[in-house]
Design brief:
It contains 2 helices and no strands. It has 45 residues and is mainly α. Residues 19-45 are annotated as: Disordered.
Length: 45
């Protein structure tokens, strides 16, 4: 049986893997990835 706790544990492990791979990239590439993943909003007026 697949429980909610197992799903959360799997998601956590995937997140740790993503963080580890992101740490190995150059700061410029990491900043570019952050910019791309963030939703774009219009200027406040």
């Amino acid at each position: 049986m697949y429980t909610l706790e197992m799903a959360y544990a799997h998601m956590r492990s995937l997140q740790e893997l993503a963080d580890r791979s992101r740490a190995h990239k150059s700061p410029i590439a990491a900043a570019r990835a952050d910019k791309v993943s963030r939703p774009v909003r219009g200027k406040k007026r």
